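Posting this for the archive.
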Amino acid sequence: MQQLAVLNSAAAAQTFADYCLTQGWSVSVVVHSTEHAEIFCEAADEPQVAAELQQFLQQPGHDKYSAAAWQRSQPLQHSGSSGLGALGQGFLQQTGPVVWLLTIPALLVFVCLQIWPQQVFDSLRFFSADESELLSYRWWSPMLLHFSAAHLMFNLLALWIYGGRLEVWLGSRQLLLVALVAGLVSNLSQFLLTGPNFGGLSGVVYAIFGFVWVYGWRFPLQPLQLSKPDLIMALGFLGLGFADLLWVNTANWAHLSGFVCGMALATLARSPVRQPK
């Protein structure tokens, strides 16, 4: 076998290899880390595999790839699996541990907030005006506070869709860096401009929007892109929030600073580790 390409996502490389194997092409993957995987194929299959790789890099979320991955992972259950089951499995394959690390605590905190609202808020809110502590969880803990089910679901949906893609294609460390830096910057900005009464993952979500948008602009041939409708929706929601035209109070400065932070991080991010021959 000869090396065909190097991908910066082991999960993506395995998904592509699974599809190739269902087509009868001899393809294997050597995983060095979650962010470094090599794809090998037989010389006789190289033209077909190379052509398919270009299509995969343009549309990694295409149904045929997730269906092949599902088929390879569940061979005995494939014939009886429902469409929703396959869809759910494919959805889970589009994310990683950092998305779960943000999702599960946010869900647990939301449940606790319904039972002990004041106690939970006091425990996780940002510093008050007369407080300051260099080493404290409160720099980030407001990210876990959501005051309505709609607020929580919107943030988690955006996190899973775009944060999941970011984590799959650029690795867990990159998403964790975006979450930690944007969480700190957005919380601090909102506090300095409005005070400590705020919460939510929106600052991180907007940072992910900003990161994916600029990263896709810098590297247009890789699959991590923010579509124009989604960009318009994100910026429109941001504008409506500052114009006070929304039906809820929003942490506008957290949204804006998170978006700018994500853009800045994308300008510093490395180029995709991909070397197709």
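The first helix runs from residue 10 to 22. Confidence is low (pLDDT under 50) at residues 74-90.
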